[in-house]
């Protein structure tokens, strides 16, 4: 059990120009916390994890596990265990040998190794596979062996690098829940890397969003969803993505095509009349209305029916070559493509405003 | 391909297929004939060896083997085979150990000038053995190792067979890097990672190295001829030559008998390991 801290940690890959894969990362993970690192590919999330594991050098700043600065420590002294995306099971060893390998290297007594391996196997439902080689296991079983290998070491931190991406959709959902409950039971500090925001939102106590090596925001899933710190987080978290539009700002508010959306005074003050603002509306914050008053007429291009609800892709009549607006509508009464519908915002509170230049969240 | 087509149509005799088999058998006969002649001749009486063109001996002469087993110059056949075995097994051990270590360094470790050194190592494949023969002889002479087995075995422990290093490097590159990383996290240093993870997984490449080294060393004549002079240190290949040198014509029969004896270990070795040989060449990587 331990707290983990990145202190302005950076990893710079040589080249012209050098790439700052992870740039000035400042992040504290509490003891027993399940923190998810999420971001698009190339955002530096895996690199950040590998820096903590000791598989990647730390060029600036440092990392701390517990009270110990482990920046220059070799991986084996860091008291961590890692689950790899490919599982990295040793093909020539049985499941039991795979799980007990680290303990054997530490010269822990054979019986103790056996006991811990069996305990972990029981926890993961692997008892009857202990004498098999990884080749003879299914994908899900291999994944569990990889988990077991981490568990038997009883480390103070678990590091997981996209451990579910090699599983099929159904198994992934199941294993997602298993890992989350396992972590709760063991209470081990866990850092989990994924590019899948559903995993991030469902598993993490807190979620750290990375883009281009820079930490964008680290918050609870709900907070991240309701108050994204900038336009990137707003667009990244949530599926389908938030509708983001950069629109002119007038004294009446933000001009989204023909509709003026009122903007708090705190936001407008100090901005010139011809400035622009980025406005973000989640698909579920929009709904179809019957009256044309104050609503946006929208031509439906595509309807994705998901059963319980449907996703309506449409364009305003006046807009030119823009991304369609996406609205989450009632699945029982979907409009048909080609139809014109009227769309209104459910609640002005649900509108997100960002600076058009920096993308930072404005006011509220 | 031909066989597949034949089985699908299933109409009448497939002449193409029959022709192919007959052709293959003919080639096989041509290839086997010298071997059969060798084996048959080892049983021929002395006067028939040179004079008779017939494959089968008129009567079986076991005396050839009796003479061959006595050996050459007072050194028994067992001793000769033993010498060959010592050198071959030593070469196999040396090559397997040193080539895999060198390959691991080239495939996995980062060090300055790794690229140029790798290229240099590959370049030595193209260096003819005869070009280094004399300098090598001088070196071993000064080390006082001439007329011992060392010149034949020691170089193998120094990863001088660049071909095997290359073969193993290519194989090791196919082993997922995550395995090394997992081993590092489990507490392995470079050596432990090598011995506990990489080496066991490189088995097919190691077996290929072992088989070829054994066959090439066992069959080698030239280097052994140059470095060994005392009959007690002779290998079976050297003994075969001295049969012709030192004896009268009537020793041809025993010489063929000894040839058969010399062939036996290598044929047995090949039969025992040919399964691995194919496996070694066919296996492309390890999928965890």
Automatic annotation (TrEMBL), chain A:
Listed NCBIfam families: PRK11650.1
InterPro entries: AAA+_ATPase, ABC_transporter-like_ATP-bd, ABC_transporter-like_CS, ABC_transpr_MalK-like, ABC_transpr_MalK/UgpC-like, Mo/tungstate-bd_C_term_dom, NA-bd_OB-fold, OB_MalK-like
Keywords: ATP-binding, Nucleotide-binding, Sugar transport, Transport
Domain of life: Bacteria
GO cellular component, one term: ATP-binding cassette (ABC) transporter complex, substrate-binding subunit-containing
Organism expressing this protein natively: Actinopolyspora biskrensis
Keyword Transit peptide attributed: no
Gene Ontology terms, MF aspect: ABC-type transporter activity; ATP binding; ATP hydrolysis activity
Protein name: Multiple sugar transport system ATP-binding protein
Domain ABC transporter: 4-237
Record's keyword annotation contains Hydrolase: no
A Pfam family matched in the record: ABC_tran
From TrEMBL, chain B:
Compartment(s) where it occurs, according to its Swiss-Prot or TrEMBL record: Cell membrane
Residue ranges crossing the lipid bilayer per the database entry: 20-40, 85-106, 118-138, 150-169, 205-229, 249-273
Primary site of residence: membrane
Gene Ontology cellular component terms for the protein in this record: plasma membrane
PROSITE patterns: ABC_TM1
Domain ABC transmembrane type-1 span(s) in chain numbering: 81-273
InterPro entries: MetI-like, MetI-like_sf
Pfam families (alphabetical): BPD_transp_1
Keywords: Cell membrane, Membrane, Sugar transport, Transmembrane, Transmembrane helix, Transport
PANTHER family: ABC TRANSPORTER PERMEASE PROTEIN MG189-RELATED-RELATED, ABC TRANSPORTER PERMEASE PROTEIN YESQ-RELATED
Protein name: Multiple sugar transport system permease protein
Native organism taxonomy: Bacteria, Bacillati, Actinomycetota, Actinomycetes, Actinopolysporales
């Amino acid at each position: 059990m331990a707290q983990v801290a990145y202190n302005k940690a950076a990893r710079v890959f040589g080249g012209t120009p050098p790439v700052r894969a992870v740039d000035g990362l400042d992040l504290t993970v509490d003891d027993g916390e399940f923190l998810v690192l999420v971001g698009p590919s190339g955002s530096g999330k895996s690199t950040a994890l590998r820096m903590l594991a000791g598989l990647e050098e730390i060029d600036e700043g440092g990392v701390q596990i517990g009270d110990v600065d482990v920046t220059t420590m070799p991986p084996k002294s860091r008291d961590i265990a890692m689950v790899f995306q490919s599982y990295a099971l040793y093909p020539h060893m049985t499941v039991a040998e795979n799980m007990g390998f680290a303990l054997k290297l530490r010269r822990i007594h054979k019986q103790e190794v056996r006991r811990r391996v069996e305990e972990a196997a029981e926890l993961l439902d692997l008892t009857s596979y202990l004498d098999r080689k990884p080749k003879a296991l299914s994908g899900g079983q291999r994944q569990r062996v990889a988990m077991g290998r981490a568990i038997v070491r009883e480390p103070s931190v678990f590091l997981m690098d996209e451990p579910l991406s090699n599983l099929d959709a159904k198994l992934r959902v199941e294993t997602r829940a298993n890992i989350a409950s396992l972590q709760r039971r063991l209470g081990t500090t866990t850092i989990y890397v994924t590019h899948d925001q559903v995993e991030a939102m469902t598993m993490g106590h807190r979620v750290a969003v990375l883009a281009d090596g820079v930490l964008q925001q680290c918050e609870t899933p709900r907070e991240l969803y309701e108050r994204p710190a900038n336009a990137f987080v707003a667009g990244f978290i949530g599926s389908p993505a938030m509708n983001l539009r950069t629109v002119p700002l007038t004294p009446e508010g933000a001009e989204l095509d023909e509709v003026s959306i009122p903007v708090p005074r705190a936001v407008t003050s100090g901005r010139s009349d011809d400035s622009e603002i980025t406005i973000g509306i989640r698909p579920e914050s929009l709904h179809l209305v019957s009256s044309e008053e104050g609503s946006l007429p929208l031509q439906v291009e595509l309807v994705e029916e998901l059963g319980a609800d449907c996703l309506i892709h449409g364009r305003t009549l006046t807009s030119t070559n823009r991304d369609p607006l996406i609205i989450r509508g009632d699945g029982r009464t979907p409009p048909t493509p080609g139809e014109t519908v009227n769309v209104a915002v459910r609640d002005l509170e649900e509108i997100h405003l960002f600076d058009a230049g920096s993308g930072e969240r404005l006011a509220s | 391909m031909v066989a597949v087509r034949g089985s699908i149509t299933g109409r009448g005799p497939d002449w193409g297929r029959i022709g192919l088999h007959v052709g293959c058998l003919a080639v096989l006969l041509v290839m086997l004939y010298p071997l059969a002649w060798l084996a048959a001749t080892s049983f021929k009486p002395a006067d028939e060896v040179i004079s008779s063109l017939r494959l089968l001996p008129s009567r079986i002469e076991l005396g050839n083997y009796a003479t061959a087993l006595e050996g050459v110059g007072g050194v028994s056949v067992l001793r000769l085979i033993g010498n060959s075995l010592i050198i071959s097994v030593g070469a196999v051990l040396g090559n397997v150990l040193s080539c895999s270590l060198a390959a691991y360094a080239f495939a996995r470790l980062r060090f300055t000038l790794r690229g140029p050194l790798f290229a240099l190592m590959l370049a030595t494949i193209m260096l003819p053995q005869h070009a280094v023969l004399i300098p090598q002889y001088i070196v071993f002479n000064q080390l006082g190792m001439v007329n011992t087995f060392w010149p034949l075995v020691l170089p193998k422990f120094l990863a001088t067979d660049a071909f095997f290093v290359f073969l193993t490097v290519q194989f090791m590159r196919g082993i997922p890097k995550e395995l090394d990383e997992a081993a590092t996290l489990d507490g392995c240093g470079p050596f432990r990672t090598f011995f506990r993870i990489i080496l066991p997984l490189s088995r097919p490449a190691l077996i290929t190295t072992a088989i070829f080294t054994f066959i090439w060393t066992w069959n080698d004549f030239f280097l052994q001829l140059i470095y060994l002079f005392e009959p007690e240190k002779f290998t079976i290949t050297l003994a075969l030559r001295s049969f012709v040198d030192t004896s009268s014509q009537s020793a041809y029969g025993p010489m063929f008998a000894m040839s058969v004896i010399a062939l036996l270990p290598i044929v047995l070795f090949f039969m025992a390991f040919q399964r691995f040989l194919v496996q070694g060449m066919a296996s492309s990587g390890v999928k965890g």
